[in-house]
Amino acid sequence: MNSPVRTDPLPGDPPLLMPGAPYSVVVLLRGYAEPEKLGGAVRADGSVSLVLPQDWDPASNSTPVPQAEPQSVEAETALQEAARGPILVDTGGPWASEALLRALAGQGVAPGDVRLVVGTHGHSDHIGNLGLFPGAALLVSHDLCLPGGRYLPHALSEERPLRLGAGLEVWATPGHGGQRDVSVAVAGTALGTVVVAGDVFERHGDEESWQALSEDPAAQERSRRRVLAAADVVVPGHGAPFRVIREAPQPGSPGVGEK
Ligand SMILES: [Fe+2]
Description:
The protein has 259 residues and is of the alpha+beta class. The chain has one domain: 4-Layer Sandwich (Metallo-beta-lactamase, Chain A), CATH 3.60.15.
């Protein structure tokens, strides 16, 4: 891939706060993936991010996410209602549940405050703690269910994102785990548009390695290009978030994508 952009990892340890309006993004836990010396095993956990509405007040978080009623509730309406409170993007693996709870508490968020959990894809290091959030709506890959287990149809596709709020969208970004992976895009932070991309990007600098872990490399290549075209910061599934820097072409030099 002839990358049209440069990327730089963001320094510092979690939590990494990217304040914004109407939504801030906090990277709570930084995922990792470390090959073991023998046998081909990998020790890994996924990154966990929190999207916080600017006007969310923990004291006002008393309105529960709708459960089975009314019958007419539509997916996007339910998601927009849920997005008025804290949103978790991925949960890490079950072995890290205590770390997740501590990181949430550090942001003043109790598990019961979380109104929506988005699981970017169905791998255990990304959705291993869904059980901590029985009161939240769950959007795991393309499966959307409200508390109590009511699954709602919706029209998410690569051409049609789900709009949760101003500048807050869920994108269909297939490839790594199959056809139903998703990413969360948050515009308007201090660092620009943040895309929490799950394993669309395994880590910063994964250009030579992501294909080996991909169910559909052609689709994932498409998803990666889409994310890089829009994001100012990418939160990958594992490792440090990274900035996306678009450099203006010099006069006489090849244009974007040309060589
Ligand atoms: Fe994965």
